[in-house]
Amino acid sequence: MKFLIQFAWKNLSRYRKRTVITSLALAFGIGLYIFTDSILVGISEESERNLIWYETSSARIMDKGYWKEKDTLPLKYTIDNKDQILGILKSIGIKAVPRTVFSGEVIVYKDPYPEDGSIFTKIFAIDPARDNTVFRFKNTVIKGRWLTPGENGVLIGSWFAEDIGADVGFPLSITTRTKDGYRQVIDTTIVGIVNCPNPYINRASLFIPLNTSDTYLDMNGGVTEIDMKYPNYRNTGKPGAEVLDKLGPLAKKVNIKTWRELASDFIALAEMKSKSSGIILLLIFVIAIVGVSNTMLMAVFERERELGMMRAMGMEDKQVRRAFLLEAAGIGVIGSLAGILFGILLDFLIIHWGIDYSSILRKADMGYRVSGVLYGAWNPATMIKAFFIGIILAVAAAWIPVKRGLKMEITDALRNV
Amino acid sequence: MIQVKNVKKSYHTGETEVHALRGVTFVIEKGEFMSIAGPSGSGKTTLLNLVGCLDKADEGTILIDNEIIHDQSKKELALLRRKKIGFVFQSFNLIPVLTAFENISFALSLLNVPEKKIEERTLNLLEEVGLKGMEYRLPHQLSGGQQQRIAIARALIKDPLIVLADEPTANLDSKTGEDILKLMKTMNRKHKTTFVFSTHDQMVMDYANRLIRLHDGTIQDDKTNPSAKG
Amino acid sequence: MYSIRKAPVISVMFIFLLTSMAAALTPEQIVRKLEANLLYPASRSKGTIIITDRFGERRSSYISYTSGSDKSMVEFTGKEESGQKILRLKDELYLYYPDAEEVIRLQGAALKQSVLGSDMSYDDMAGDKSILDSYSVYSEGEETIDGTNCYKIALKAKTRDVAYQKQIMWINKETFLYVKILQLAKSDKILKEITVNKTRKINSHTIPVDMIIRDTLKKKSSTEFIIDTFEINPVIPEGTFDLQGLCW
């Protein structure tokens, strides 16, 4: 065995050009694999963050009836004892804020807007003083200012503002229905523009103060949801159970949904995407394996006579096979290591500088909650995986030509010049 | 020592059947220096391949050390070759990535001989074939004759029952060819190793102590040559 | 902007004076007369709808059957909407799309959708209740609209199943058909303005044959209903108001 390893190593170092080229083909594939994975993991992590920070919070408390009709954003299912629930949550150290979410039609007029228009949208009534303890919108105001309680002011997503040509100081009317179903108009003024990294919010959302909506929508202090921030925002199991426990009898009247359930569309999409990204990765491997198998094929055919001679001298087939496969594995090791280095380099670039995809993400709705610059993520597990995959790949690529070489009669192999 | 009894072998090349050997019988005694001669297509290489256990006869039997090799498995045959048979090829067939020393020692390392002994024997043989000091050269840094000397050393290192050499001088000029034959003969004498080599070159035949002439797959002539050169 | 709440005290007093002078009709009586004018045992009408929005103008035509106050069926005959039907039975609204060959009952949020993209939503069509069941009515005196003497009646919702918490109606003193209606948001902002441009007298009823609904928030948005033919007590094909008949 030791001899075989030495022999394989000698072959690798002797046929340096071939070793380098084959290893590079493999390294390229491995590097791309690590890089693609880094982007995918990066997008997915970023999406989760942006979901929780700007869309779902860690978990949400809603009235029992709300969930079934959530798509219509009904106002009839409200939490009327929000202060009691907020008090309980505070006592167990969970940050929480009340919100009312409703749908409405935004109506704007030519001058100051570029043209008359109307569009249906989602309006978040938030508590200006407390919202930032759970969400992070306050930090994303890029123009104007944050809301003050009770004012007829509105914050608008930056993409939305661009789409309708809105700016700070512009008037904006929202038509909707009150809790009782009466038609209602809320005349507001844009006080600020938020540019949050979650495109779903940025594209079509408005924010008004909670007490303003309370007045206009006849909510009598009720809210449609209470959003909670758990200590580890992604981990919802343990705190969820604690909240349920502490709410006691109140828990019977409400539903608690975690961010995973709230963003089931994203989770489903992410699963689907990971399947399709598997296909991308497979393609990368096909490229690598074609490159590797081609040179391995040449390497074996070129040495058919050598192979015959080794067998004539009494090497068993399995020894010969081992010798060649060890050589391939050597290429695998070199290629994998080089690929990991290449991958780390690409990862570094994508993690440090990112790729500005804003123009694409702006137009296409990909389901991911990312906008602007995409950043990768380090993923050591993938690098380790890639290392072994590279070796297996190289060995697999050599397997067939070696098998063919061994199938030949020794006498035929020796006859070939 | 080696008995070849009524051996027949034919090949199919496309549609036509080629009868390479049509029933060949002879015995090789220990220490012989024997040549199998004949024009190309007479069955020389086929006969050597059969004796060297690289191929199996269609009919007839071959006994090596009183063992019938016909029924043995691929693995057993490989083991037999490893221990008892040395090959010298027309085109040397050294492993290009190994040094002269390694090409020789390689044959022995397959037999699990202690490294120290391998080294000793390899260096001795290198000296015997006249290549002392060239142990670190790679095959492409050696002349054809030198390469064939390495090949002879490689065949001899395991102290085989028989060395089979298929046209060992065909790729060499006549002067070098003669040197190789002289070396083989020296080794034959010194180590009592049996040599069987094929050729169609009269000069080469002249070195053989015994000459078997093949024609169309049959033995035309089998005689000893008391006045052999070398 | 018009506001009931901000109406000067003087005009309120003036209204009080006027109503007491007329001395005959309470606002409730006026509304009942309005409803009586619009209630026929049965009717059949053919008409045109002109929908205007900021993208331009669209026309569609329809045939409508009514029976009493609780049954109505509208079938669209325009090219694009051909075969679409809306059936109302008491409070329930059903939609039929010929392409889908499917009957849909409209409920909840779906009622807030607009009919054919017009300024009328389905819940504007729904409901067979009298105005007086849902609204408290108040007299706001008399006014002249385009030379027509009208009663001005304010409606304030007393139940929660209506879309507008407030409405103001100007009702022709002679024909008891409304001339103009304003529908207000809860914040008193005017949402819709309905004006009747033309009427026709059939038997003892005065029918609005040209009526425009304007969405006052969307400047270029309006829906005009023009009635071409109107028959009272016509022969109504059997099964017109059957749910099963909707698909035929």
Helix content of chain A: 40-55%
Q: Identify the overall geometry of chain C.
A: globular
Determine the strand fraction of chain C and express it as a percent band: over 45%
Let me know the CATH homologous superfamily of chain C: Lipoprotein localisation LolA/LolB/LppX
Alpha carbon gyration radius of chain C: 19 Å
The percent range for helix content of chain C is 10-25%
Instruction: Please give the count of helices of chain A.
Output: 14
What is the total tally of β strands of chain C?
Answer: 13
In the residues of chain A, how many domains can be counted? 2
Distance, first to last CA of chain A = 29 Å
* Overall strand count of chain A: 12
| Lateral arrangement of strands in the main beta sheet of chain C | 6-5-4-3-2-1-13-12-11-10-9-8-7
- The stretches of 5 or more residues of chain C where confidence is low (pLDDT under 50) are 1-7
Characterization of this structure:
The complex is a heterotrimer of chains A (about 425), B (about 230) and C (about 250). Chain A folds into 2 domains: about 200 residues, no CATH class; about 170 residues, no CATH class. In chain A, about 55% of the residues lie in helices and about 20% in strands. Chain A has 14 helices and 12 strands. In chain A, the strands form 2 sheets. Chain A has a 6-stranded mixed β-barrel. In chain A, strand 2 and strand 3 form a beta hairpin. The longest helix of chain A is centred in the N-terminal third of the chain and has 41 residues. With about 230 residues, chain B is of the alpha/beta class. Chain B has one domain: P-loop containing nucleotide triphosphate hydrolases (Rossmann fold, 3-Layer(aba) Sandwich). Chain B contains 7 helices and 10 strands. Chain B has a 6-stranded mixed beta sheet with strand order 6-7-8-3-9-10, sandwiched between helices. In chain B, a hairpin with a 2-residue loop joins strand 4 and strand 5. In chain B, helix 3 crosses helix 4 and helix 5 runs parallel beside helix 6. The N terminus of chain C is likely disordered. Chain C has one domain: outer membrane lipoprotein receptor (LolB), chain A. Chain C is about 15% helix and about 45% strand. The termini of chain C are far apart. Chain C is globular. In chain C, a hairpin with a 2-residue loop joins strand 4 and strand 5. Chain C has a 13-stranded antiparallel beta sheet with strand order 6-5-4-3-2-1-13-12-11-10-9-8-7. Chain C is built from 4 helices and 13 strands. Chains in contact: A-B, A-C. Chains A and B meet through helix 1, helix 10 and helix 14 of A and helix 2 and helix 3 of B.
